[in-house]
Structure formats: C-alpha cells, structure tokens
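User: Can you help me understand a structure? I only have the sequence.
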Amino acid sequence: MRGLFVTGTDTGVGKTTVTAALAWGLRERGLEVGVMKPVETGVPAGAAWPPDAALLAEAAGAADPRDLVVPAHYPDPLAPWIAARRSGQPVPWDHLLEAAAALAARHPRLLVEGAGGLAVPLDATRTMADLAGALGLPLLVVARAGLGTINHTLLTLDYARARGLAVAGVVFNGFRGSDPAEADNPAAVAELTGVPVLGRLPQLPPGAGRLYARLSAHLDWEALAGPPGPLGERPG
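Assistant: Let's start by predicting it. Here is the structure, written out as tokens:
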C-alpha cells in the first residue's frame, strides 16, 4: 500500500483540510489518489455522507463507495472508542483494514486521515497508531503553527518513533501572522527532530470557498510528489 496516513498533534488542527489539499494537489498534477476516513465521529443524523469524508471525496474526485471511504461513523463528537461504545456498535477493525485494501486496489496511492492524534483509542486495545502500523503507511503529522506546537509536535514524533512508525514529514497549519512563535517553530522542529517540514499553511477565513484548493499551493510538492517522495511516481 502506497500513500500517507495523516495524523495530528491534537484534534482540530486541520487534518481534514490538509488531506483534502493533498488530494486536490495530486489531481492537479495528474496523479490519481484514493481517500479514506476510517472512523468519523460527530456525524449529523440523516447525513447522506459524513462531512469530513464527503470533503475528502470531493477533493480527490474519486467515485468510491461511501462504505469504503468511511467504513465506520458515529453521531457523538467523541473519541472513536467512546463514540462507538455509546452507540453500541464497536469499531469494526477487520472491516477498516479490508476497506483500505479495497481502496488500495482501486488507486495507485491512498490518503488516510486519522481521528485526533496517534494515541486516540479505537477500542480498549487499539489506537490510531495501531491502524497506521497495520496499513504500513508513513505518517504526515499536521501541527498548529503557533505557540505550544514545539512541545506537541515533538511528543507526537517521539511517540510515532517509539511505535516503529515512519514519518514522512510535518505540515504546520493555521499561520495567522500575529503570533511571533510562528516564524521560528517550523525550523526549530526540523532542527530538533530531523523531520522535514512539508508545508506552511495559512489560516483562511471561514467560508473562503474551496479551502483545500487554496491551501494546496502551500505544500512542498517537490518533496511530496517527486520521484523520491511518498506520493510521487516511482522511477523505472
């Protein structure tokens, strides 16, 4: 399986918009991609598609069945294990893996967006880190731009390494220009960890429209989709 597992230093850091920006950018470069949100919580009752999964599918332009793109979804806006337990429907671990394999068979690369951070539980014994490991995809870590992100990002990267997960890079999201820490945080994280920074994305106003398309321009496409990159064409 080839692609990226998009995780974050926390919830609400912009994983969905970054994953959509990646999918859009790949399409713009003529590179086909599948998208997946294995578990989505906080899904409104009666929604035809869970909103995050719908945004990813729109950005990728992929016509995959909903049950492959988002195999599990729950109404409560909670961690997957808690939301699943409240609903009486456990997270279907085997089905998540089967759906990812089916999407990988349909597409040459796959973007998988996790829920929350790596330690978020799927059940009493498995976390998002376990899912990333089972899929065998390198991580793209989405981090906040401002003050506090060095601590959160280093903790996430240390945890990933302790779990034996490969990290392709970090994307910093939400630059506002008003926080003096923003100017130095990306270089500091790269220097302290040796992990490349693959994007510096601005904070765009709500309702900006096609948010993912506008953010796509701020990703390092040479590193992401060049021949050595995790999303590029393989030589040969």
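Now, to help you interpret it: The chain has ten helices and eight strands. Residues 3-225 form a domain with the Rossmann fold fold (CATH 3.40.50.300). Let me know which part you'd like to focus on.
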